[in-house]
Amino acid sequence: MVATLIKLELLKRIRSTSFARSLTIGIFIFFLAFLLLSYLFLFGLSLNHIVKNILGQDDTVFFINSCLLYFFLLELIYRYFIQQLPVITLENFLHLPIPKSGIIHFLLLGSFISPLSIVGLLLFGPFAMTEIKYTFGPVPAYIWLGSIMLTSWSIHWFMLWFKQRFEDNIPAMLLVFTGLLLSIGASYYGYYDLGAFFEPVFTFALESPVPIFLLIIILVCSYFLCFAFYKQNAYLEELSEEENLSFANHSFGFLSKFGLAGEMANLEWKLILRHKKSRTYLTFCLIFLLYGLIFYNNPLYLSEHGFSYIFIFVGTFITGIFMLQYGQLFLSWNSPAFDFYIYQRNGLKALVKGKYLIFGGISCLCFLLSLPYAYFGWEILWIHLATFLFNMGVTMHLVVYLSLWKPKPMDLNKGAMFNYEGMGMSQFLMIIPLLMGPYLIFLPFALWIGDYAGLVALGIAGLFGILAFPLILTRIQTAVAKKRYEISSSFRQEL
C-alpha cells in the first residue's frame, strides 16, 4: 500500500502542467535549504566557542541548558509558519479503497521527512559530541541529545494537531511570540530568567536516563493525539467545510462610499481573513512592525549628526510591508475567480481600485502603529512620515505595475512559507527597484544639502504621486483591461 501511495504522489507531480516550473523551484529550494542547514551545522560546531569566548560564559553546559526553553519556544513559532499540513493531500486519497488509518499513517509519517526534523541535531549534535561527551561521558551525551530531539519531534506532532484543531489560531501564536520576546528581554535586563528556572529539567538528562523514557511516552502520545484527530475528521465534507470565522464576514461600512470599488475592497478584506496564505501575510505585517527594534536602538546605527541612512530602508519596510508582500501578487489572489471580474460591467476597474483602497488603508494603519517609535527620537517619526508618503505615492504604483507582468495562479488555502505559487520572475526582480527607489530620491538631497532635505524630497515625491493617483489609476486599469484575456488564460493553468 505504501508503494502505491508513493507511486500515485509521484504521478500527480509528474503529470502536472507546471511540472517543469515546480521542478526548477524545487531544486532552488533544495539548494537553499542545504545552504541554510550547512550554516546551522557550522554554527553548531562553533557553539562552544561562541558561548565561551564571545558571550563570556564559563559553564557552557549550564548556559545551553538555560537557553533550551527559548529554543523550543522559537521552534513552536517557526514550525507554525513553515510546517505544512497534510490535509490537502488527504483529500486525494479518501475516495480510494484503502484503509483510512493507513492513509493517515502514511501522510503523518511523510510530513516528518523535513529539514525541520534535523535542526536540533545539527545545532546541538556537535556540542554534545565534543563538550558534553568530554565532560560527562558518551552515554549522558547521547541521552541529552536524544532528549532534545524527542522534544523537537513531539513539537512536530503537536503542531500538526494544533494547526488543524484550532484553524491556525494566530492570537495563540502571537501570545507565544510575545512571551518569548518578554522572557528574552527580562533575562537580558536581569529581571528574571525563565530559562534558568527550567535548566534543572534539561540537566537531569545528564544524570539519569529517565527523561528519555518520559519523552518517548510524550512523543508517542503526541503522535496518536494527532492521528486520532485526523482519523476522526477525515471526511470530505469535514475537509471542505468552511472555516468558522465570524470576524471574516465583517464588512467596513465606510467603504460603501466608494461605490463598486468599495464593495470589491470589502470582498478583498474577507478574502484576506478567510484564506490561510493571505492571513499569514497579514500576520507577518504585524510582526514586522517590530523590525525597527533591531535598528533604532542599536549602537552600530546611532549617529551624532543626522541619522543612519539604513533607517530609510527600515521606515520603507515598516510602513509598506503589506503592499510589498501582498501587492506583489496583485491579481494572483483573484486567479480562481478572475473570469468573474472580466464579465462584470466595470468589474476589473472596480477590482483594481478596491485593491488600492486595501493597500492604502492597511499602510495607513501600519504608519499609525509605528508612531511609538518616536520614543527613539523625533527623527524616526519624520523618517516614517516621509517613507509612508513615498510608499503611498510611488512604491504602491510601482508594485502594482510590476506585478502585471505575467501573473501566475495560486491556491489560497496553502501556507505562505516556502510556497512559491503565484511567484514569477517579476516578483523576484521587483525587490531591486523597490529598495533602490527611496534612495534615488533621498541620497542626492541628503548628500548635497542635508539629511532632512532628503526626507523632504522623499515626502514631496510621494505627495506628487498621491496627487497623480487618478491618472495613474486610470493607466493601471487600462493596462489590466488590455491584458485581461492573456491573464485569464494563464490563470487557467493547473497548479
TrEMBL record:
Keyword Oxidoreductase: no
This protein's record includes keyword Flavoprotein: no
Chain segments annotated as transmembrane: 20-42, 62-82, 103-129, 141-162, 174-192, 212-230, 280-297, 309-333, 354-375, 381-404, 425-449, 455-474
Top-rank taxon: Bacteria
Keyword annotations from UniProtKB, A to Z: Membrane, Transmembrane, Transmembrane helix
Organism: Negadavirga shengliensis
Protein name: DUF5687 family protein
Alphabetical list of InterPro entries matching this protein: DUF5687
UniProt cross-references to Pfam families, sorted A to Z: DUF5687
